[in-house]
Amino acid sequence: MSAETTAKVLTRMLENKPFRTQVANDPQALAQLDLTDEERNMLVGTAKEGVDKLLQPASAGAGSSAEALSKYLGTCRVGLSSQVKSDLTKAALERVARKTGMLIGHSC
Fold first, then answer.
1. How far, in Å, CA of 21 to CA of 31, rounded?
2. Domain that holds residue 38
3. What is the rounded CA–CA span in Å between residue 63 and residue 96?
């Protein structure tokens, strides 16, 4: 299922800056993956815009690739495996934590 692949690629993009840069600069990096042209375009556009657009309120990213990707994965969420959903959620939370300076998983 290509939505599953899309979620896996997005997870890797959230976690790995060199991979994000590669996707933004060379869309062919995704050529061998089971993705539709629309999915590939959303991922490349999100890499170019910056993955942090995914973490902004919807109105801030209106019309962006990140917004389209977020909506797409939201509609596909039921069909994603629990592991992929968990990995994507974890990557997004860790990204937010890094950007805001929050400590996750640390005891006081």
1. 15
2. 2-100
3. 22
| Beta carbons of 40 and 30 less than 8 angstroms apart | yes
Confirm whether 79 is domain-assigned. yes
The string of pLDDT tens digits covering residues 25-38 is 999 999 999 999 99
Structure tokens, 82: 């629990």
Q: Is residue 76 part of a domain?
A: yes
Q: Model pTM?
A: 0.84
Reported for 71-76, long-range contacts at CB under 8 A and 24+ positions apart, including other chains, are 72/3, 72/6, 72/38, 72/39, 72/42, 73/3, 73/6, 73/7, 73/10, 76/3, 76/6, 76/7
